[in-house]
Amino acid sequence: MRSIDLDHQLRRIIQRGRVMTAPAQLLAYDADGLGYKSFPPQAVVIPADSEELAQLIAAAKSLNLPITMRGAGTSLSGGPVAAQAGIVVHTSSLRKIRQIQADEFWCEVECSCTLKQLDEALKPYGLFYPPDPSSGTVCTLGGNIAMNAGGAHCFRFGVTSNYVLGVEAIMLDGTVHRFGGPAGGRGAYREDWKRLMVGSEGTLAAFTRVWLRVLPRPEKEWTFQASFPDLQSAERAIHALVAHSSFPVAIELMDPRFVSLVEKSPMAAGLPQDKFLMVTEIDGPEQLVDSRVSEVNQLLIKAGAEGVQYSDDPARRQKLWKARKVAGGLMGQLSPDLVVQDAVIPKRSLADVLEMIYREADAVAIPVVNVFHAGDGNLHPNFMFDSRNPQKLQQVEAISKRLMRKVLEVGGTLSGEHGIGNDKSSYMPLVFGPTATQLQLSIPAAFDPEYQLNPLKMFPQRKYAHAAVTTPEIYHVEMAAEEERLFSSFIDSIDGVATIDAQETWQHIDDKVKQHHLRFPLLHSPNHTIAEHLRASHFAPASSRFGPFCDNILGMNWKLPSGEIVRIGERVAKTTTGYDLLRFLIQSPSDLGQALQYVIRLRATVGDYYEILVHGNDESLFNFADRLRHSCWIHWLDSFDYLITDSNPSTSIRLVINTPANEWELCSKMLSQMAGNDPLTVTTQPIPGPPADGLPDISIKTTCSHARQLARSINKQFGLPSVVSEYLGILHLFFPSSQVDKNLLSSIITEHRESIHALGGDLLSRHIPADPPTSAERHWLKVIAQAFQQTGGRQTDA
Fold first, then answer.
1. CA 2, 64, 443: angle at the middle one, nearest 5?
2. Which residues are within 8 A (CB) of 267 and not within 5 positions of it... i.e. 6 or more apart?
3. What are phi and psi of 485, to 5 degrees?
4. From residue 494, how far is each of 121, 252, 304, 348, 773 by CA, in Å?
5. What pTM does this model have?
6. Share of the chain above pLDDT 90, in %
7. Structure confidence at residue 526 as a pLDDT band (50, 70, 90)
8. Gap between the Cα atoms of 168 and 721, Å rounded
9. pLDDT for 275-296, tens place per residue?
C-alpha cells in the first residue's frame, strides 16, 4: 500500500489522535531497547483514547497490514517493533491513573501510565507497586504486562504476573473484554483469560487499562554492599541469604569485569576491581528489620565477604546501589551496541554457565560483563560489540545461541523478565517439542489466527501472510525437538523446588522436604492431595504471604485427552517463555486434561510456627485488622485471617508466622501492641504447622471489604463458618457436616454471583460443576480444545 493511501485511510479512523507516515517521523519507532536491529514501520498511529484505539483495531482486517502495539519501546528483546512492517500503534495518550483504592490495595491505570508515575501517585497512600525494571522511570505498565517484566526487587515480591488483577483488552474484531478486575478473579468468564494476556507480547489483543495489586511500603530498609574474592564465596552468601529469616527483597551480583569497568569510568565508586560485588537489601517493620542487621552482616562475612558496608540512610543506600544502577547507561556509553541476554538457570549451575560465557566471549575478543539477579538465577550477560562489523555481529549471535542451549541443558529457561520478542524466537523449538508447540500456538490461533498482531514474535511460525514485507529470519531457526521434554523426579534443596505427584497428600510432601529445611506452606488439609486442594480453592491461608497455588506451582507433566503427556512450565521460579498455559490450566475447569506431577516452589523453614489469636467484638477486630493491613507486617505473616467459627458467631483474627525463636518474642510483642486501646484479648502459642481448616466447600475471590461483608451476611443467614483472608479478599465457607447441602450451596452462589463478577471476582465449589462458558469465550475454548485433543508424539525426561 502506498504511503499516501495508507495515510488517507488512517486519518479517516484517527481523527483526534495523530498519524505519521513521513520517513523522518518513523525513525524513532524502528527499534526498541535492543537497538541494533531496526524494522521501519509504514505508519505510526497515536490514538487519542481507548475508543479511537478500538476503532483502529476493528479496522485492522480491512487495512490488511500487521499491527504492532508499542508503549515506551524500552524492551530488550525486539518486542514492540514492526518486524513485517505495517502499523505501529503508540499508546502514549492512554496514561491516566483512573483510581487508587488504598483500603482495598488495588489501582486502575491506563496502559501507558509509567512505573514512575504510578509510584509517585502511590507514595501519599503509603503504598507501592513491587515490580521494578531498570527502565522504570519511562517504561509503561502495558508494556510491562505484555512482557511480564521483573526487576531487582522481584526476588521476594515477584514479577508483574503476580500483581495483575485484571486487564481490559480489545480483540481484533473491535470488541472490548475485561478479564478480571479489582477482585483479581475471572469475572463473568469461565476461564481466567488474563493469565494468557500477561506475557503475551502484544500478540493476542491491545490493552487499554489494567487493575494492579499494590502493597504497603516497608517501614525501614537496609542496603548491604559486599565484595567477594571469588564466585564460590559469593554463592555461599546467596544460599545463606535465601535461607535467612530476613528473606532479602534483592540479591544482585556483579562480576569483577563489570566492577573494573565502573572503576575505570567517571562513575567510579571506589570498589576493589578484582572482586565480585554483591548488593542486597532487607526491609520490614522497623524494630524487626533492625534486629536482623547484625545477623545479615555476620552471614556475609562468614561466607567470605570482604569490606561489607551497610546503611539505612536513604542517601547512603543510593550510593551503595550506585554501581548496580549505572550498569546499562555505562555500557551504552562505552560500546556502539549491546546485547543484554536474559536467561534463568538453577543456582547450582551458576559457575558452570558463567565459565561458558567467559570462555565463548574471550575466544572471539568480545567484551562481556555479568550483572544479574542472583537470588533467582536470572542471568544478564552483557555483550559489547559493533554491529557494523558483520563478523562481530555473527559471533555475538553464535554465542547467544550456544548460551541458550547451555541454559536449557542445565534446566533453565530462555527468559525470566525480558520476554522472547524476535531476539529469541528462533530458540523456541529447543524449549517446546512438537505437541507443546501445537498447544502454545493454539493460544494466538484462538484470538488472532492469521498472526496480524505483532507477527514474527515469540514463535517463528507467527508470520502474517498478507504483509507486504517478509522479513528474513534474524537467526537460523533451531531444529525442533523430536521428543517432548518431561519433568523427572527431583528435590533441589538449593533452588527450593521439587517434583511431586498430583495425588500426593500435603503431609507426604511435607515429610519429604522438611529434612532439607524447606516447606510448602499452602495448606487446607494435610491428608488431602494437592489436586484436591486445587479443586477446592485457588488459595490457602498462607496465600496472604505467598500468593495463590498457581504462583507456587512452576511446572507440571500434563496428560492430554489423547493420553499423551506434555511438559507445561519450568523448574525455575522465574520465566516468561511462551504463553502462560501453566497458570491458565491450573485454574481451568475445562476438560483439557489433567496434571500428573507438579513442580512446586518450596520456602525456607526459618524457625517454628506461631499463632496469635485476637478476640473481641467485630468493630474492635476490624479496627485492629485495618491497622495491620496497612502496615508492612503483612509481608511477614504467613496467614492473616478473620474467623467466624460457629452459627452463634464467635469471631477472631488469626495471625500465623514462621520465625526463629529469637525473633518470636519481638514479633509477638509488636503485633500485640497493635491491638492498642481496643477491648481485645490476645493469646499467643506455638503450633505444629500452618493452619489446617479443611477443604472449603465454597471459595470466593473478591475484594477485601466485600469478602468480610459476605462472610458476616452468609453466617447470619445460614450459620456457615468461614475464614476470610483479610489482605487478599478470599472467603472460604464450610458446611458443618460431611453432608453438603448442594441446593443451599447453589443458592448461595446464585445469590452472590452477580456482585462478585462485577468486581472481577469468582466463585467455585468442589461439589458442583463450574458455570458454562460465556458466548464470547466459546470460540476461544473450541480452538484451544481442538489442539489439546489432536496430539501425538514421543516423550523424554528433562
1. 145
2. 322, 323, 326, 330
3. -75, 140
4. 39, 17, 19, 7, 42
5. 0.97
6. 89
7. very high
8. 35
9. 999 999 999 999 999 999 999 9
